[in-house]
Design a protein that fits this description.
- With 148 residues, the protein is an alpha+beta fold.
- It contains 3 helices and 7 strands, in the order E-E-E-E-H-E-E-E-H-H.
- Helix 2 runs antiparallel to helix 3.
């Protein structure tokens, strides 16, 4: 049986109370910086996908109750080079946006098969550094989401 990724994913903006944002550099594309992202597995709730991906990619084992579901979805075309991971004919992905506040100095342990490194940036700089338009837009919304 061939496994295909589901075209449903999460984007998790990890930040500190003073809006320093964690960015990860993709191993497959040096210079491409992003927040935590990942595909939903069969039968998995989106909030659980967010929790699992954060732990896998950063080593942060946060309880589900600390994640904030922004109730925002983005649909975008999957890069041609990554379409082989999906069922034939799948060209678009639906991304669900979450955030997670962590304390300053949070320990990070990156997944070296997925990422080359990480950095913390003030939210405006983090947005500028992201290669993904949806990630950039989410980071730019962060101050408003945290003001609630």
């Amino acid at each position: 049986m061939t496994y295909h990724k589901r075209p449903v994913s999460v984007l998790v903006v990890i930040h500190t109370p003073d809006l320093q944002v964690l960015l990860l550099e993709r191993a497959s594309h040096a210079g491409y910086w992003q927040s935590v992202t990942g595909s939903q597995e069969e039968g998995e709730a989106l909030i659980e996908t967010a929790r699992r991906e954060v732990e896998e990619e950063t080593g942060i084992a946060a309880p589900i109750g600390r994640f904030v579901d922004w109730q925002i979805t983005n649909t975008f075309e999957i890069f041609a080079e990554w379409r082989y991971r999906y069922a034939p004919g799948v060209t678009h992905n639906t991304e669900h946006v979450f955030s997670l506040e962590v304390p300053p100095g949070q320990s990070i342990r990156i997944a070296t098969d997925e990422h080359l490194g990480y950095c913390w940036r003030p939210w405006r700089e983090a947005a500028e550094q992201c290669f993904s338009w949806s990630n950039r837009e989410a980071i730019l919304m962060l101050p408003g989401k945290c003001a609630r």
